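Budget justification aside, the reviewers requested a transparent look at the raw inputs and outputs of the sequence design task funded under Objective 1. We therefore reproduce one unedited record. The lines immediately below are the structure tokens for a 153-residue chain.
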């Protein structure tokens, strides 16, 4: 086995979505577009932060669900804000606790790269509880607010 590649079904927007994702996520590219005889897009091979993906235009009948989402780990609040705002542009829908659905209905989580460490709060159960409670009030995650909650501020 060489690798496992996420494969996303779209209803006519595979190339548009892949091109958009590659423009938002660093170290990303659209690598290959397989076209039908009429010139329309069938399959798009692309990379997001070096990870391969494939997307196919296969028609309606299989809407996306947040039961499967893609988590984007970011280094800081500025990067979180940039990616969050880009994914919401054009018709995305925010959810809770760092989740959103983009304009194509694909679910994403935009979270700090140190998410696990942040929520564990160095093993301090009370601080971890405060961080968790703060996170539960958020739509887009706010890293400084989470850090303040851990400190008890």
């Amino acid at each position: 086995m060489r690798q496992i590649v996420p494969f996303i079904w779209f209803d006519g927007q595979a190339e548009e979505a892949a091109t958009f994702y590659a423009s938002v996520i660093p170290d990303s590219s659209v690598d290959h577009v397989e076209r039908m005889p009429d010139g329309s897009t069938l399959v798009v091979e692309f990379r997001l932060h070096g990870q391969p993906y494939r997307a196919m235009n296969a028609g309606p009948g299989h809407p996306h669900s947040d039961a499967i989402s893609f988590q984007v780990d970011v280094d800081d609040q500025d990067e979180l804000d940039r990616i969050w705002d880009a994914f919401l542009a054009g018709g995305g829908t925010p959810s809770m606790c760092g989740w959103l659905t983009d304009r194509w209905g694909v679910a994403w989580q935009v979270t700090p790269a140190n998410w696990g460490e942040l929520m564990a709060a160095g093993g301090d159960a009370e601080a971890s509880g405060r961080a968790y409670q703060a996170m539960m009030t958020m739509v887009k995650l706010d890293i400084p607010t989470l850090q303040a909650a851990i400190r008890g501020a």
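Residues 74 and 80 are 6 Å apart (CA to CA). The first strand starts at residue 7 and ends at 10. Computational costs for records of this kind are itemized in the attached budget.
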